[in-house]
Queue: 3 jobs
Job 1
Amino acid sequence: MADVIVTQSGPVLEIRLNRPDKKNALTGEMYDAVEAAFKRADADPQIRVVVLTGTGDTFTSGNDIRDFQARAATREGIQVSPFLNALSSLTKPLVAAVNGAAVGVGTTMLAHADLVVAVRAARFVMPFTSLGLVPEAASSLLFPLLVGYQRASALLLLGEAIDADTACEWGLVNKVVSEADLMSTARDYASRLAALPPEAVRQTKALIRNGRPDVPGRIEEELALFRQRLRSAEAAEAFQAFMEKRKPDFSRFS
Ligand code: COA
């Protein structure tokens, strides 16, 4: 079975992250597949809405840490940039159905979704600093706007996790539902959006988005730092600790 499954049902394109044995950790190939699906949705007039979800108990555990390590070692760039550009410039509405933990980019990507449904067991965490990294997907810009400066600092600086009810209260999630109701709720949002006049929907989405400051510029600014951080000794210690299933030790860094 593919790591990303894309299915079309009438006007709705459904993208499913499907690597449950690795908690849907995102590899370069998976970013490419999701990016291609976003581009397909934008190009195909038959597609009016995109739904994004994951298989198993995790929405996604974020970027694959082995991939991070391999790229840092070979000094290769990270593959996330085209995915982030396609996500942030998607013209059709995106409904996210968060089926469990959303880690790192699993949470940052939600600031680009138009409607978010989450199961009660969902957890949202952006542990960038504890990995020796910095935020991505313009989250350093969008989260202070979305949840306020202090809450954004708790999420991004401290890497504090929040549960689904808190995410709903803070405006990151529209609705919290039981596992059994997740896909029916997301598909209900999708079919309601698909039944509306498509140009009015696209223009309204663009108007809502256009109120935000320079998102593409912040994505690039963050990624420039992120690429440096990937090769840092702090990140190397964090990745190695994850692989060895131990707590990282940052005491030697100044
Ligand atoms: N990259 C690579 N592998 C990952 C991964 C990731 N981001 N997240 C999970 N996995 C792998 C684990 O290494 C483990 O592999 P193994 O079976 O070969 O040992 C498998 O997925 C299951 O993960 P496990 O940690 O045992 O599951 P859990 O239910 O106890 O915890 C998470 C789930 C998501 C909370 C936990 O896996 C986690 O914190 N992952 C790292 C998240 C992270 O820091 N992401 C980067 C953000 S920038």
Job 2
Amino acid sequence: MSARRDTILREMGLAPLWRLRARTRGGKSAEPAQATVLPAARTIPPERAIPAAAGGERALRIAGMDWKELGDTVAACRACALCEKRRQAVLGVGDLHAEWLFVGEGPGADEDEKGEPFVGQAGKLLDNMLAAIGLRRGRGVYIANVVKCRPPGNRTPEAAETAACFPFLERQIALIAPRLIVALGRPAAQTLLGAEVKIAAARGRLFDFRGIPLLVHYHPAYLLRNLPDKAKAWEDLCFARATMRRLCEEAPARSP
Ligand code: URA
């Protein structure tokens, strides 16, 4: 393990847990398997599906926007009550042709002030998590949120707010066309999968968002509050990295 990765894992609260250890008697290494046999992508059974928000004329318009129009529209959006208390809308940040798309819940106070997702404490942890698997914000990575305006008091976005904002996220996904989506936390997972999701049950599995493989991770803010679960985050990161490797092997060049 490189010194830099060591430092990052220590900051994440993962070291020394993640040092390679000798194989146990059962032949299992303490390091999460990197050559995991990945389960096939699964979709949510219809009985657990949450009905998608009605598309309508507004969603159709958004679905035809380029990045400039999308940015302007999000900045001026008044489609739900979240616009009333925001300082600014936060569209997203990163590589517009990213292979990795990370989707969080919504901007907090720091993001509302700076106009960029995940710049507070949770963002620092996210950056460290990215670095632990050799990724960096903006380099092959795009970070977005389900809602683009800060929910007051950092509460979970309401269904109507999520529904009003969803066409923006849909358009971002269509424009980026990532190889892999990582939903950070329950609201992001539920929004993208259109179903009730329990992170503990969904992590480590491969889902599908309209043909794009999707993984579910604990939200970094949750990990900050629940230190023991940080260990699971490393397993999830290894799974994400193994999934991306497999996707790249299966289709080395992405279609435009
Ligand atoms: N939490 C989120 O879900 N998104 C952010 O941008 C910041 C914190």
Job 3
Amino acid sequence: MSDIILGIESSCDDTSAAVIKDGWLLSNVIASQDVHKAYGGVVPELASRAHELNIVPVVSEALSRAGVKASDLTAIAFTRGPGLLGSLLVGTSFAKSLGLALDIPLMMVNHLQGHLLADFIRQEGVEVREPAFPYLCLLVSGGNSQIVRVDSPLEYTILGQTIDDAVGEAFDKCSKMMGLGYPGGPIIDRLAKQGDPLRFKFAKPHIPGLDYSFSGVKTSLLYFVRDQLALDPDFMEKNKEDICASFQKTLIDILMDKLIKAAKQTGIKDVTIGGGVSANSGLRQRLELEGRKRGWRTFLPEFKFTTDNAAMIAIAGYYHYLAGERTALDVAPVSRMSDF
Ligand code: KG4
């Protein structure tokens, strides 16, 4: 008999539901929340309210696109954390209620685990190409910057992580400082394509081991912008492409230096990336370039699986299901989750 898993993701500002059947994706529906754009960042209370409005239509649409009825479901996987508590509450409560009504098991999933396993989402008409265990994943988003060794679908070791800001935050804050808008990553990515990445230099951190730091490079940009604007009030407008290209190159250099070090230390040659920042075109190109140079097999998630989506939660939940794990109905969401 087939296992049909409904995945639910509501950790931040995207409400998403997906259906997978024996590991194959049948549907993946995402409702994004434009309401936050006016505020230059996600407003938690507005996010929870939008999730409340979206969750029923999004789940219905996911079931309908998959061609399955609620009564066909084998189990429900949901994001327990990390994320915004109010947002997580909506998805968790919905998953629990539906699980109870249908009398089917629940599997809680760590959102980050979903990003780590995104390469295992199988799709009709798309070549199956999956990393072999153990592999390295550079997990980069608005809340995380980590190098993770993935030993099996349910076993992970964090080899290094940021000691301050996440790299996505650095992209977003750079964009804010330059008055370019939110979220900053895609805007900087677009402008960087037209700029000279070698024109300006920004400070790089000297952190031992495999950990990251992004607060210094952010401050370096802040002082640079302040000093240049004092000399020429139009500096930013005249040079924004080169600033974005140079800043983005600095962030990619920092990320790749430690990833290369991790690959050398572990001898692992299968390397993946995940999380919102893995959509960055410069980072994707650089990973492929380094991969070719170093004999790595590199795996880049499709763009639709880089940002928050329930397909990755469903696939992670499927592995928990196969391992016989079940989540009790008294589970509560958590804003921080230290382990996977
Ligand atoms: O994983 P995600 O959707 O949400 C969490 O943080 O959990 O990641 C969002 C982050 C934001 O900081 C956004 O600016 C960044 O991913 N991002 C990008 C790109 N697209 C999204 N950063 C760089 N380049 C991009 N193309």
